[in-house]
Amino acid sequence: MLGGAFFAQAVASPLKSEPTSQPRHVLLLSVDGMHQSDLAWYVAAHPNSALAQLVDAGTQYTHASTTIPSDSFPGMVAQLTGGSPGLTGVYYDDAWNAKLLPAGTTNCKGVKPGVEIDFTEDLDKNKSSPDAGEGLGGLPGSILQMTGSPQKLIDPSKLPVDPKTCKPVYPHSYLQANTVFEVAQNAGLRTAWSDKHAAYEILNGPTGTGIDDLFTPEINSDANGYPAGNDWTTDNKATEQYDNYRVQAVLNEIDGFNHQHTDRVGTPAIFGMNFQAVSTAQKLPSSDGLQGGYTNKSQPGPLVVKNLGFVSDEIGRMVSELRKRHLDKTTTIILSSKHGQSPTDPNALNRIDDGPLLDGLNAAWKKTHPKAAPLVAHAVDDDGMLIWLSDRSKAATDFAKAYLLAQHGNGTDINKAPKAFAHSGLETVYAGAAAAKYFGVKPGDARVPDIFGISQYGVVYTGGTKKVAEHGGAHSDDLNVPLVISGAGVPTKVVDGAPVETKQIAPTILSILGLDPASLVAVDKQHTEDLPIR
């Protein structure tokens, strides 16, 4: 753990910056989709950039891994709780729970349990509107007026229901571990965050109140005025505009205001946001006249390069604002990512339609179990497979595993030509008790997937050709994300190549602020250590 000894060492080492005050603020930034290789490439090519300066003024961990599955929800939750999916209970933003009741249930007696846990834009009162249904006028330009309490923007009739209370389960109460925001609040400190759906109120933690100011403009809402404007992710310029709104919110918070810039409340002790532009640049085949994805193995294409520059410049604005407000000597910046993106080798891409695979599994099961329900209760397949079954017996999980491994067919390559696949595009399949063991939970756990399939490199499960990359799997392209700690109290010009995990960010944040990391349930139970800062 960090403490007085850490700061004494920081002053003594010749590599350290000049002594600063005790850090009083932590600014956490997630560049979704970004790989460590992207950061290394960009810094080498742009040594005078804000990203390069951030790396130079801090400690860089070159072998950092995010969660498995590498989805946004478990990835962000890990950074702010210190826990892996098995402990937090959060495997994906769209999952299944075998014990909760279907959304809309009002009379719970005799209702069969088992329900999709959909913590996406589908929870919004109006998912087509950037304000998620708050009813603001003048959108999207007025989006900064949006509430800092997005729980009120969630439609409770869309939430799963607790059979014990017969009441809706909000995202925050679904989380099985507390967050750094709650620990900070208990110490009388202010907190703020910005993310992409109202459902990110899960980061409030089990109390439901951990974040004082939570700004969540809906990224999958209509982005009018753009050629591909059915949402902010389908046109990369739109994604940049979306990110700009949230950067402005952070700038307002640096200045000591709420995100709306209406009330002077003081700069938060813990605050930050995630960037989406790099992620869309990696996934779109092209946008705004530029090729998306990668041109060769780990070589960013023109659109990704443009967006790495965009993120660098936006981070530079934040750093400049911290200096302007004389907060640079008391603020520590942590840069990482919720997830990477796979594949970074365009020649490895194989887009496989998972629909026929799941339909075939159900049909094969029905042949021998004609009166049984469809075997697949729920599935989420991006570049890995998570499947929850209606029958969780060993016989059923073994059947599903055997079926998937026996399937062969054709997907489409980067040029949209047929490309053969074997074993449903899977490299390894964990089924039943093996899947539970993989995630560190007991067999029969209500949340754990019954089938977890790790895909072959390059496989993306999609029904069309609109994507050239995805996340959610377990390849190094999904997992190896950047991790940099820079600023107040941190040694400069340090490169640490030891393996670390992004869940170590959570206890590190608390230690930086002089708070007890053991206050986090996940840190206490999983013995999550601080990041080593020399």
From TrEMBL:
Pfam families: Phosphodiest (PF01663)
Gene3D superfamilies: Alkaline Phosphatase, subunit A (3.40.720.10)
Location of the region described as Disordered in the Swiss-Prot/TrEMBL record: 122-141
InterPro entries assigned: Alkaline_phosphatase_core_sf (IPR017850), Phosphodiest/P_Trfase (IPR002591)
Protein name: Phosphodiesterase
